[in-house]
Amino acid sequence: MGWHVSLIEAARQPGGRARSVALTDTLTMDNGQHILIGAYTRCLQLMQQVGVDAAQLLHRAPLDLRSPDRHGLRMPPASALPAWDVLRAIWQAKGWSPSARLSLLRVAARWQRQGYRCDSGATVLQVCQGLHADILRTLITPLCVSAFNSLPEHTSGQVFLRVIHDALMAQRGGSDALVARVPLGQLLPEPAVHWLQAQGANVRLACRVQGLEPLRASSPNAGWQLQLDDGSLLQVDRVILATPATEAARLLQGMQTHLCEVQHKRYQRWIRLAHSLRWMPIATTYAWCALDDAARLPRMQALAGGPAQFVFSHPEQDGVQPGQRLLAFVASCSELPREAHEQALLEQARAELGLSLLTLIRTLVDKRATFVCSADVQRPPMQILPGLRACGDYVEGDYPATLEGAVRSGLLAAQSLSA
């Protein structure tokens, strides 16, 4: 867009929640198991732009939400008619009675008639009125927990319908699950930094912005001054706060400038909204499993019990620990203490998967993994002040707390600076 970019990153490695971490001296994985889906078009386009071959680095397979007993929904290989694929998946699902299937078809037809829109205050439970209890339990609840990190009664019906439309109805393969074959750092953040540097951008890692002030109080659009943690000052024309909500609020609260009344109200409202967001944790437990036992597991296996909702198999790590396969168990809405969580997970692996010899490596808990995308949530807007924008998956938008939501927000923030 013609801007000369300075990227100031507080961490030693880029990526935020999508960064790689060293689990052991020989094993590097991620700070949490992430997946993409085929509908994440902006993520995939950005990867292509920075030189990533997504077809090679992402394992793509039709979405499979079946529990280990093979009951539940599995999408067929994508065709040119997404609606037909959904019908096939519903009709072929095992464990659902004819009345359960018909209830899903009726409700899905209602969503389509309504243009995948609903009252802004409706919850997922309300937009799913009329669904059979088995469908709510085995399909809607797992979808909410995995995509939103919250239960149907606590989740925005409007955002849910947007995700359902984009994933299942809008394009071929939109619901496909894309699981990274490499640590996430290699999938996007690190190639993005290299691309920026090749374009002449100033990239500073392990550098924190301590203060933020407009160059002229009467006109924030005239530019901004950043105080860095090494004591230096950086003057810039525009600022995008691509940070967690709490970090953006910290910088705003530290401003000393007296703004005009209108700008001051907007600024104070933004801070209030950022602080009013509620957060939910996600726990990812990495473990070694005997290769003979794990070989029968797919890349992504839905689980019916708790605490974990999914387990992911990573065959690309087979050479790290001879005879062992790396597994990642993902528990959304996780609130158990770490020791109790791990004990419950071991019992779940034995009961549901028949895996009795797991060697736990580490459980990574992100306590503020996602904001609660409830029906009544008020998300902070992108524009804070003239020349100052915020972006992130928590900023006002149509998507929940996902990688795609973050990328879309960043693109909109950048485009708005040139508008």
What share of residues is helical?
25-40%
How many distinct folded domains?
A: 3
| CATH architectural type of the largest domain | 3-Layer(bba) Sandwich
Number of strands: 18
Give structural notes:
With 419 residues, the chain is of the alpha+beta class. The chain folds into three domains: 63-169, no CATH class; 208-278 and 374-417, FAD/NAD(P)-binding domain (3-Layer(bba) Sandwich), CATH 3.50.50; 279-371, Alpha-Beta Complex (Polyamine Oxidase, Chain A, domain 2), CATH 3.90.660. Helix content is 35%, strand content 21%. The chain has a five-stranded antiparallel sheet with strand order 13-14-15-12-16. Helix 1 (41-49) crosses helix 14 (403-417) and helix 10 packs antiparallel against helix 11 (261-276). The radius of gyration is 23 Å and the shape is globular.
Could you give a short description of this structure?
The chain is an alpha+beta fold. The protein is built from 14 helices and 18 strands. 39% of the residues are buried.
Descriptive labels:
single chain; three-stranded antiparallel β-sheet; globular; 419 residues; alpha+beta; 3 domains; FAD/NAD(P)-binding domain; five-stranded antiparallel β-sheet; Polyamine Oxidase, Chain A, domain 2
Question: Mind sketching the topology for me?
Answer:
Blueprint: E1 6-8, E2 20-22, E3 28-30, E4 36-37, H1 41-49, H2 54-57, E5 58-61, H3 82-92, H4 98-113, H5 124-127, H6 133-148, H7 157-169, E6 177-180, H8 184-187, H9 189-198, E7 202-204, E8 209-214, E9 224-228, E10 233-236, E11 239-241, H10 245-253, H11 261-276, E12 279-290, H12 291-294, E13 300-302, E14 310-314, E15 324-332, H13 338-353, E16 358-371, E17 383-385, E18 388-390, H14 403-417
Parallel strand pairs: 1-7, 11-18
Antiparallel strand pairs: 2-3, 4-6, 5-6, 8-9, 9-10, 12-15, 12-16, 13-14, 14-15, 17-18
